[in-house]
Amino acid sequence: MRRRKAKKIEVLPDPRFNDKVVTKFVNNLMLQGKKSTAFGIFYDAIDRVSEKTKEEGLEIWRKALENVTPAVEVRSRRVGGATFQIPSPIRDARKSSMAMKWLIGYSRSRNEKTMAEKLAGEIIAASKGEGAAFKKKEDVHRMAEANKAFSHFRF
Predict the structure, then answer these.
(1) Quick check: 61 and 124 in contact, CB under 8 A?
(2) What is the count of structural domains for the chain?
């Protein structure tokens, strides 16, 4: 157990869209402390999304993030020597964090040439309700639904 609750570090809004959620996304996208490179990749991906869809890129990204955000997850819990997968609701900060990490993780494993292209492709797919990140959310929900019988073990 922790002694005290961890402090929430306040992030600054990004320079182009003036949005804190964008900065959180870029912080997850960043590797080895290269924040300006991560911002470049994100902005390039948003531009590619708006180019391909002929709509506002940031709105498509928001829709993709919303489509990938899970509502429930399963957690392991030991009860009398057996381990049960218990569905439990997720708090808001963790929901958005999981959605961002899934979107970025599955973008990295795509087959396009640059990271901006990969991210743009995954954003477009997620906004339409398809793609690997959206499939991950569906799998998590399906698992929670399958284990609904064990929800009375919730702590």
Answers:
(1) no
(2) 1
Q: What is the pTM of this model?
A: 0.91
Of how many residues is the chain composed?
A: 155
Residue 5 lies in a domain: no
Q: C-alpha distances in angstroms, 127 versus 41, 133, 150?
A: 19, 10, 32
**CATH code, domain with 28:** 1.10.455.10
Residue ranges with strand state E in 13-59: none
CB-based contact 126:67 (threshold 8 Å): yes
Res. 56 pLDDT band, cuts 50 70 90 = very high
CB 137 within 8 A of CB 96: no
With both helix axes pointing from N to C terminus, report the angle between 132-146 and 92-108 in degrees, rounded to the nearest 10.
Answer: 130
